[in-house]
């Protein structure tokens, strides 16, 4: 097919949505879930045939120039005010200033690029403000948040998180009237009723909330054969940033209580690593707990994950969790706490879902689950098969998810954009 005909065919396929301006504070393979997801959205939209341009922060420039030189990116630079606010640890003011600078650059780029859609892919919090872009068709999301710890674990919640939950209603009411960006946009919502409730408090209309998955999975992982399980395998893995709400300490304590032959590899890094290392030493676990460190998403990580019996992720305030989706696709059984994000993806038919009834109850249940899965390969394989089937039925593949987002893009274009 001649190039001109290819372009015409692509335009027909995309139904007039050709130019997409993406906006996110970070796009990166090295900066956690939101950055990874924002980068993947850019690459997948480009692969679908869109002309994509990105606005993001200069902190990722070196990585992008080295690893993603083909992407069209405009960068927000830090000024003296950001440096000053960072030194003062004035996080709310810094977050607001960063959001305003991203918005201002997005407006300038949009005036030059003339996008069909402006899509803010993060931050994902339903509370953080967005500014209006009059005259533009705007999509925001997926948004996912309003997550608190289970009642039995509220003592683990930081003071700031507890205060935020207590003032959510008046804060959302105020922010929704000061910053109208979310109220004027179509919103992709992945956090279910809890996220929708926070958005409605901020004055958003129910008919502008579109339910969606939080994240997609690359073809390379979806197309891998599912891991099969048989016989005995007492090797378990925890995957993610080492921060308190991930519950890695609960997994380590469960290992100490359960089968003496079981092992736990911890893939990831973060501020809690020293504390977790000390806990493993104090419990006398020795080589049974190994801190692997951070590994980038890709074939090497997926090959490694294929050798474990299950993912042990007792997160206590997980908005969603890409790790859960990847495990479901890979065929790695999941042991998790029945709360927040995992509830949006899994049921007791596809995973071992542990009631969040407090430290001791969860540790005991984790130990029992690891003992059973370690010994019973047939049961592990049943869970893995059901979880994989559910992932396929929900359309976890990025191209399937973004294909559904095309309908949202078209709806945003049909909605009369605000002009004032």
What does this protein look like?
This protein is of the alpha/beta class and 420 residues long. It folds into two domains: 3-216 and 397-414, 3-Layer(aba) Sandwich (Rossmann fold), CATH 3.40.50; 219-394, 3-Layer(aba) Sandwich (Rossmann fold), CATH 3.40.50.2000. It is 46% helix and 14% strand. The protein has 18 helices and 13 strands. The protein has a seven-stranded parallel β-sheet with strand order 3-2-1-4-5-6-7, sandwiched between helices. A six-stranded parallel β-sheet has the order 10-9-8-11-12-13, with helices on both faces. Helix 2 links the parallel strand 1 (19-23) and strand 2 (51-57). The longest helix has 23 residues, at 91-113. The protein is globular and about 65 Å long.
List the keywords.
glycosyltransferase; Rossmann fold; disordered N terminus; alpha/beta; Glycosyltransferase family 4 protein; 13 strands; 6-stranded parallel sheet; globular; transferase; 420 residues; 18 helices; 14% strand; 7-stranded parallel sheet
Count of DSSP helices?
18
Q: Could you give me the name of the CATH homologous superfamily of the largest domain?
A: Glycogen Phosphorylase B
CATH architecture of the largest domain: 3-Layer(aba) Sandwich
Structurally, the number of domains stands at 2
**Gross geometry:** globular
Secondary-structure content class: alpha/beta
Q: Could you list the spans in which at least 5 consecutive residues all have pLDDT below 50?
A: 1-13
Question: What is the arithmetic mean of pLDDT?
Answer: 91
Please report the first level of CATH classification, the CATH class of the largest domain: Alpha Beta
CATH topology name of the largest domain: Rossmann fold
Biggest beta sheet summary: 7 strands, parallel
Work out the helicity level. 40-55%
Determine the N-to-C terminus distance.
44 Å
Strand content: 5-15%
Count of DSSP strands: 13
Cα Rg: 22 Å
Strand order in the sheet with the most strands: 3-2-1-4-5-6-7
